[in-house]
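Agenda item 2: flavin-adenine dinucleotide complex prediction
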Amino acid sequence: MTDLLVLGSGIAGLSAAIRAAHAGLRVGVVTKGELATSATRYAQGGVAAALDAPDSSALHQTDTLVAGAGLCDVDAVHVLVTEGPRRVRELMELGAAFDTRNGVLELAIEGGHSLPRVVHAGGDATGAEIERALADAARALDAIDVHERCFSVDLVVEGGRCVGVRTIDATGRAVELRARHTILATGGAGQLFAVTTNPPVSTGDGIAMALRAGIAVADVEFMQFHPTAMDHPSMPRPLLSEALRGEGAVLRDEHGVRFMVDEDPRADLAPRDIVARAIARRLVARNLDHLWLDATGIADFPEKFPTIWRSAQNAHLDPRVDFLPVAPAAHYLSGGIVADLDGASTMPGLWSCGEAACSGVHGANRLASNSLLDGLVFAPRIVEAILAGKDAPEPTGVMRGIDTRVVAPELTAGPVSTITREELQHAMTVGAGVLRDAASLETVAATVAVDVDARDVATHELRNLLTVARALVASAQVREESRGTHTRLDFPETSEALAGRFVTRGGPLEFVPLPAEVPA
Ligand SMILES: Cc1cc2nc3c(=O)[nH]c(=O)nc-3n(C[C@H](O)[C@H](O)[C@H](O)COP(=O)(O)OP(=O)(O)OC[C@H]3O[C@@H](n4cnc5c(N)ncnc54)[C@H](O)[C@@H]3O)c2cc1C
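Presented output:
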């Protein structure tokens, strides 16, 4: 029997699979595309880690907590920043080649970081290099069985325990795969929105599977919108990494005026939520599609940012002389499947890591380049916990205060409809995008209160998007405040009374206040 079934082959899934195989476990990796198909391979900027002085894990922790707008779990962030440097070095030992100068790792600065700490590869092709290194390593291990083009449909649950997954395999057959332990590492859900940087596979499948099984999910109202996706018809939208602003690029309005200097003391390097809101407000007020990123001051643009250079060339733009059109795009889901500090979910036998999980490190707003690190740090903790005999969640990290009993799922889907993915994405963009209010959320809630007849992969994905959309909208409706990436035009202030998480198991929402005592 398989010891460990890993659903997803991005940085989180493959990091777990490789570590488990090295430890002698028999591993299956189930992935719906090719092995390297993932959001991971699109990552540009890099991985944040406090590798050497003058940086420190304490500084990295402070920056992460500030960006998270009061909702990070301090213990989880502590794990992230203290274990991160070791995991980055292990990734290099595995074969990932990060950019160096004179034998020393080059470090970039991005929004919200107090100093340069972001390692990168191929200039702005960090994710592609990481995914290559991990996929090569996984393929070389006999203990890993790779199931490509194999779509995970639903968890197999027996006696309240996850014992595997039902899939549709590459030939279209329904196949059940069983394992002692299963990890949901299926990534995010950017495809909920019409404009996104995420690839087509980011349809929230793992989160929807968890909700259908009655497993706790939290913080899903916090979808981060990247402020500077290139306004261009291609999909996913080409990302104009924050690293450009780290290198001196600045935002300008339709008159060429720099506006971030009036918005925040950190100006163009303010955290993403602040920059995205500043852009979105101007787009709405002035009825515009985009503003501009002026990167004309960056020397050696083609060498430093080859991926972005190619995207600009495809749009017939030369970043050395042209301003680049930018608008916010759905980018990163901070919430997900509630996981304790070892990645255990509320269901015995089921674990989660990476963007699908809510590890608590991102709170209400992820700090740039902390998400690759999230997968890199929490995946091996799952394997170590399994090897140590752990089998059920403990009250650590975001699991504190959460009822760990497995409950019967109470899904409220609604009548079967003929809604399309595009209609769902449009409704979500208008109703639950960067700027939200009670009326917009009520409209989109009605649109997504339907189900579809799931027969094939495309309709299963649509059903999953609807499931996650309902959870996101319901949480956004009750979060009557603005915090992090969640902006309510009708509740512009942050409310102390809402310092906590909305948790759902598919049915009603439960509010779990943050623990009163912040552990040292
Ligand atoms: C354009 C872009 C740039 C980014 N830049 C950065 C950056 O510079 N730094 C940073 O830290 N983060 C960045 N991010 C975010 C980061 O890339 C992701 O958060 C991270 O890669 C997520 O890793 P993951 O392993 O959790 O999920 P993914 O890499 O998305 O992997 C999920 C895997 O699950 C598979 N899967 C999904 N559903 C199913 C199913 N039903 N059955 C089987 N398989 C399934 C997918 O095919 C995929 O293999 C960026 C994201 C994007 C889109």
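Discussion summary: The chain has a mean pLDDT of 94.
Owner for follow-up: CH.
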